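By way of example, we now present a protein record of this kind:
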Amino acid sequence: MMNIRIVSVAVAAVCALGACSKATPSGPAEIFPGAEAPDHRNHAYSMTESLDGTIRIYTKESGDEAWLYEMHKEGNSWTDPVRMDLPARQRMKGASFSRADGSLYFATDAEMPPPFKGKDLNIWRVEWNGDSWGDAEPIAGDINTGANETIASIAEDGTMIYVSNRPEMDGFGYGLGEAHQDESGAWKVTKFLTDLNDVRTDDHAVITADGKRIFFYSHRTPKEGGADIWTSTRGADGTWSTPANPGPPLNSEANEFGPGLSGDGQTLFFSRDGVLMEIPMEQALAGLTEQ
């Protein structure tokens, strides 16, 4: 009996020093744990969260259609996702809360005013008044074209990073561009980020609130899986660094795409083979310090 007591006291002493504490969870976690796994035509991605952390919106594909779903925080829990009632024909995607004014920017194939024609995707904007969404309208300026504009993300300083497949991006497919508002509030292209764009698709871009880092998905190499999330930082002179692949634990042998940010910027949302995931920002970038 004495030996058992001695061992128990020793174990208690070790635990008091922290040796028996649980390890801090590391790596990505599912946002909807236990949900049915999606098939290849039913993916969820590009989750965005309002600045106050009370609204989450993400894209969900269903066959050839894509729709935005919203969730609202009530106490310590989230409401069930509900499809948003915003203008669209069959495709509504790429939502992103502006870090400059809190409004929601999203891509939709809704009918545009003349001279626009066709059913391509364009960037629209809508505001939340605390109880409901206002009237959505296409943004003014030269961002929207006859090509597809799939997402626009805005930093606190008003820098917009957007994605389009207009030829000026890289001449091959979807690529990144930068824009700012003029005195009238219209969005004007500042530059096409041809130094960042690859001959393969670069899409689902999001810029951090401080405007110093962007995340986007790409099929470029070297990569961990079929598609990875890449990142680039903006220097004091406004130029963007050569894109880097953070590697694990953010990227894996699966397909990672659709990055998005929490309201406080401390969590990176993304999709792994169509399943919505979240990871602390410091863990998402941990692989860069090891390269």
Notes: The longest strand covers residues 65-74.
